[in-house]
Amino acid sequence: MSYPTNWNLARYFYSGLDDPRLDADIASILPLATEFATKYEKIFGTFTESAQILDFYRDYTEMSHRMATPSYYLFYRSSLDTQDLSVTKKMWEVDYIYNEAANKLLFVAQWWKQIGYDRIMEWSGLPELARYKNDLLSTADGIRYILGEREEYVLNLKSRPLGLAGSLHDELTGSYEFTMTIAWEEKKLTEEEVRSYRQHTDRSIREEAYRSLRRVYNTKQNQISLGNIYTSIVKDWTSEIKMRGYGTNVMAQRNISEEMDDEVVNMLLSEVEKAYPVYQRFLRAKAKMLGFDTDFSVWDVGAPLGHSDKDFTFEEAYDLHLSVMQDFDSDFYEYSKRMIEEERIDVFPRAGKRGGAYASYRKWEESFVLLNFTGKLRDVSTISHELGHAIHGHLSQVQEAPVYDSPLSMAETASIFSEMLLGEKVKSLVSTDEYKEYLNERLGDIFATIFRQVQYVTFERQVHEQIHAGAELTYKDLNTLWRWEQEKLYGGVVRHDIAPEDESGWSMIPHIYHSPFYCYAYAFGNLLTFALYNKVQDGSLSVEDYKDILRAGGSERPRDLLKKYNIDIASPEFYRAGLREVEKMVEEFEQLI
Fold it and tell me: In whole angstroms, what is the distance from residue 270 CA to residue 276 CA?
């Protein structure tokens, strides 16, 4: 292997759990919080000079960064082996300390509330605080949801045990063992490897992959566990909404954190749902190509069209990504090279490793990417997707820490844009038959990241609304709701082989456990990227303009930032234009029948 394929965490963090520096950094968390509280607890609300606010921001961000370093390290270690109990135990210990530190810092929110909306808005208009403007605006908007110090203290205490539900989900699903019978041989596989077989050319193997996942997820014990974990998370979310006064919109908390107006999010969901028939056209065309017009099953949705599976080595896949980045922009290319050379990409699946893929980054630190590479074309796209995230995190380092992170609604921009760049490269390298296969893959990915993500969110919304209204839902209720939303998406094109009350697909989606309603960011990000990509291609948006959007991080509201480039996300036409691009690709696909 010419590239390093494992993280070198010792290079960036600690040599191991027994590193004295790790223990020292953990031991410093409470003293850091105490020192900060001693300095600011009695005086923060009396500030009149912008220099005092700047000092406060500097001290707060430096403290927060130092306190968070052990947590990042332990999160990365846990991602590599969710079954390492020594890591899990350490994470719980650190989580307890963080909660204690957070209680010492409750005065910050209380002072913001006492300072009041008008004064914070006045500060946001000062030139010397311009680099913190969006954080001040968000603070001004958020103070109405801050409770009294005693109530915040109680919420903080209860957040720890309830917060462990997400960890329990990861630990539980990470312990699952999967088997598949292939060519009369039973194989033990990771979940990621099983999932990759759902795109196999052999229909019986695709079916076996689906059944392998169900044999584990659909056991009564796992369904009870996952159902209770999920509904506990939803109930916690609901209690926060009610206590903080977010109103009746169960998505309000997410929308506020994403700096997205409720009506904009509702417009996104509504316009995509109206376009479900476009997806159904794609499925009908695909069923015809495969010869399954009357028997198109759930395990055929992700099927390839060809008769051979093209595999990529990791070197081939990464070199392809590098060539795409080199053609587009030198910054994208150089940072992609650094990522792999500096051992910040963990590549292959293994037992216990967290499933899926992610990129992680923070102010003043380098990006890290986790993959589960199995050699399929989809995995090649995943490289470009996650490296897009990493590059976004790199470019936004120019922002101050409080406005470094993009809201999730903008966080998918660079990742999807990088996938689109890769797509153009692939298109130029393949034959007509291969292009048909590529178009099938590309449309499959587009529908997965726009239409199916909206289906996830509409399922979540149903669950949250029912629990918000006082309903108790069992795992069978969740299964039935999931089938209902599936049927709206599939429109009767797909044949199901199990009853609605056994349809457990929701339980296999980590996002709904860890970040309620996060998935609409994928749909929004795709449609936004269509707009940005088309503008770059027609020359109305330069590459530097596009990089400036990424460099903005969280320094501007998405609606305000994009308006500078003549993109109005509050207009239904914005979403319809993106969906028309999808429909054009479906028309091209239909013509290939």
Answer: 10
60: phi then psi, degrees, rounded to nearest 5? -65, -45
Cα distance between the two ends of the chain: 41
Architecture, CATH, for domain 176-593: Orthogonal Bundle (1.10)
What is the distance between the alpha carbons of residues 200 and 291, in angstroms, rounded to a whole number? 16
- What Cα–Cα distance (Å) separates residue 590 from each residue in 27, 282, 440? 62, 7, 11
Per the structure block, which two tokens stand in for 567?
A: 């993109």
Report the SS3 class of residue 264: helix
Domain boundaries, the chain: 9-168, 176-593
* Residues in Cβ contact with 559 at an 8 Å cutoff, skipping those fewer than 6 apart: 259, 260, 261, 264, 569, 570
Share of the chain above pLDDT 70, in %: 98
Tell me the mean pLDDT in the region 382-401.
96
- Among candidates 2, 72, 39, which has minimal Cα distance to 362? 72
Q: What percent of the chain has pLDDT above 90?
A: 77
Q: Which amino acid makes up residue 172?
A: L
For 110-122, write each residue's pLDDT tens digit.
999 999 999 999 9
Q: How many CA atoms lie within 13 A of 441 on its CB side?
A: 27
Tokens at 422, concatenated:
């890769």
Burial class (CB in 10 A: 0-12, 13-18, 19+), 548: middle
The CATH number given to 9-168 is: 1.20.140
pLDDT at 310 over 70: no
The pTM score is 0.83
Distance CA 151, CA 136 (A): 23
DSSP letter assigned to residue 295? -
Alpha-carbon dihedral angle through residues 12, 14, 17, 18, given to the nearest 10 degrees:
170
pLDDT computed for residue 162 by the predictor: 64
- The top-scoring range by mean pLDDT among 44-48, 127-131, 173-177, 427-431 is 127-131
Split at pLDDT 50, 70, 90, the class of 1 is low
